[in-house]
Records
---
Amino acid sequence: MFERFKSKKVTYKIIEMRTGLFILFVFVLSCAISVEAQARKKGKAIEKEERPLQAGDRCPNFSFEDIHGKKVSLKALKGKYIFIDIWATWCPPCRDELPFLKVLEEKFKDKNIWFVSISCDNDKKKWIEMVKGDKLGGIQLHMGDDWSFMEAFGNRKIPRFILVDRKGKIISPKTTRPSEPETETMLKALKGL
């Protein structure tokens, strides 16, 4: 009789232990599934973020100040082609392109295109002085240390020239420099310019 009672107690402990192990197994499995789902979701987000913008992608909107402190956005410029120059006063290759950019602006002044120069200078005062002193044309904007627009294109190298169509889609995320003859040829070939 004592053996029977002992046997039921052992059986109960075994059942209790198996139930505990089963609950532990279910908990670990659900954690693993949750972690995997989060990693997959995060992986897709990282994959999307790391892919630089390419031709055909929508150009990210920006909203930067001009020399008068007025905000100008990409949305406000839609309807015309946009030739974007990202530059800085401290960048010799950027400054070397400015005379050629002025020539392009003059040649295409009555055409369906905006020339937008976006400065990444931290020193806004120095940028304003150069824009006024060198009588830079086009639309002059200051992004300061907000590199998110540039980073969408995959790097922070300047000078950088980007061509956007009338609907805000990227034609070329890294077009030729104004000093290169191909740039004028490419601009002349744009439909509806």
Note: The CA atoms of residues 94 and 159 lie 5 Å apart.
---
Amino acid sequence: MLSARKQRDLTEVYPRGDLCGCSDDKALELALEDTDAVALGPGLGTNELSVQLANKITKGPERPLVLDADALNLAAEGLFDLRALAKSRPILSTPHAGEMSRLLGESKSNIIDDRLAALREAVRRFEHCFLLKGTPSLILNFGQGYPSREPRDLGPCCWRNGRLTNRGCGALLAQGLGVMEAGALSLYLTGRAANLAARGASLTPTDVIQWIPDVLVERGAGISELGLPFVSYDADAAR
């Protein structure tokens, strides 16, 4: 849970769903009231306590919400209606191909074979913004014309960097950005930081985090050479 009004990013920390004290409704309610955005999913789990926590958050104060990992898996199982939820608050879902396949009821291979078609179908069906992580990563918002893409690059796809992208989305939403802008900027920040870390297959999330301040002070030309109706980011070319 993140608050732009605090000197720290996290207002409350809740461990995995099987360990958290989610029975304390008052504490959770107070935490949500003092929160500007919520990132739900990584480390959540899918057991009964996880389901209770997810229900309380999705039925609680209408804060901008980033959904990833087990939150999307629970949605795919019918725990909550993504389309209905999107009518009550800004939502950004950040699935990888496996999570997207469960949401759409398609095979993972079909998602990988036509990532853009899968993205468009998810946005059409659930009526909110989706960031489909992978190679390439794509983001499209409901009611907007074109998806943004990130150039094919190893860095953003390395081990668990998708979790960093999810947390970045939540932090940027808490600062007041829209879902499309938060998703695109978080994707760029984590991807570019991964490139600067330059550790290849041994890259870890800690490596990426250490380089984010350097990315924030960079300045690019802001010119795309793709010649395509996409928003491009000043990331390194594919390698």
Note: The domain at 25-216 is CATH 3.40.1190.20 (UDP-N-acetylmuramoyl-L-alanine:D-glutamate ligase).
